[in-house]
Backbone:
C-alpha cells in the first residue's frame, strides 16, 4: 500500500466550501480505493464535475487530489479553513518550503489512522454485482436490469 500527502474535500451537500483535509492516505493494492480517517473512498467510474471518489459506506462524494506546492488546494471559488493532520505538518511545510502554517488557512487536527480496513472487504466484494451507483453507471445498470418491468415488454 502506498501512502502520500493528499487533499480531500467533501462535496456532497456542499459546493466548493465543504470540510477539507490535508493528510497522509493509504491506497489499496489496485489504487482504486484510498483509506482515510476510518473511511474507504473509491474512485468513481464516471467522475463528475466536482467529485472523483465516493465513500463506499455512506455514498458521499469527495474530491481527492495531490497537494499543490503553492498551498492553494481549495477550489478558487471555495472558502473555509482546511484541516491538517498534526502528524504531517513538518512534511507539509517542507513540501511548501515554508517555516510555519498560516493560521488563517488551517486547523490542526488528529486524524484516525488506526482502523480496521477489513470491514470494507465485504462492501468492496459486493461492488462487482452492482456497478458504481453514482451518476450514469447506476441508471444504465438499473435500466438494463429492469427494462421489461419499466416498459412492460
Residues:
Amino acid at each position: 500500500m502506498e501512502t502520500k500527502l493528499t487533499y480531500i474535500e467533501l462535496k456532497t451537500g456542499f459546493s466548493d466550501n465543504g470540510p477539507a483535509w490535508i493528510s497522509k492516505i493509504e491506497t489499496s493494492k489496485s489504487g482504486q480505493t484510498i483509506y482515510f480517517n476510518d473511511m474507504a473512498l473509491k474512485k468513481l467510474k464516471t467522475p463528475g464535475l466536482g467529485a472523483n471518489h465516493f465513500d463506499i459506506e455512506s455514498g458521499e462524494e469527495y474530491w481527492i487530489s495531490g497537494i499543490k506546492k503553492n498551498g492553494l488546494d481549495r477550489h478558487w471559488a471555495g472558502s473555509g479553513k482546511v484541516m491538517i493532520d498534526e502528524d504531517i505538518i513538518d512534511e507539509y511545510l517542507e513540501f511548501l518550503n515554508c517555516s510555519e502554517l498560516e493560521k488563517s488557512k488551517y486547523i490542526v487536527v488528529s486524524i484516525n489512522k488506526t482502523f480496521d480496513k477489513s470491514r470494507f472487504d465485504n462492501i468492496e466484494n459486493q461492488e462487482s454485482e452492482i456497478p458504481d451507483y453514482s451518476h450514469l453507471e447506476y441508471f444504465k445498470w438499473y435500466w438494463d436490469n429492469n427494462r421489461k418491468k419499466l416498459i412492460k415488454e
Q: What stands out?
A: Residues 3-128 form one domain. The mean pLDDT is 83. The longest strand covers residues 3-10. The chain has one domain: 3-128.
